[in-house]
Amino acid sequence: MKILRSFILLITLLFSANTITYATSNAYNLKNNNISKKLNFELINMTDNDVVEVFNHNDNLIYLTEEDVNLMAKIVYAESKGEPYEGKIAVASVILNRVLSPGFPNTINEVILQPNAFSCVINGEINVTPTEECYNAVYDAIKGNDPTNEALFFYNPSIATCSWMQDVQKTNSKAIGQHLFFNTY
Prior knowledge:
The chain is of the alpha+beta class.
């Protein structure tokens, strides 16, 4: 019986060592061959506890922290209160689209705090407590639901005070609730 237990222990240790070697080897190969940035991140950077969500669009990855999600939910609340749920998702999508666009900063925080980017930041209305619906809209946008056709801009034409928004040439415009979502030429 003692020999059988020793044999099982030996086999278990050998199997564990092979599994660890295989996992380490695969992580090394992924890193060096750049096969998959997402898998590489998951295998190599598993200790990065700050990342709570990953937005993946056309092989572009945005690693989102809890602070990013909270900040996005605040913008969604402040910019789209009274709008339909689809409009809330659309506001969150614009933020993600800007992070992916070379014409904007490459982090959620920098996009949101970019000068004159969001009226609620300018007038202080960002200091709100988002609703669960706002968080759900952010998570739906992170999952890839983008009702805006990859818009980078939005405004409410009936109350906008920015002449740039009204006068600029728009492409792929789409009305959702009271907002118009669009790109520029």
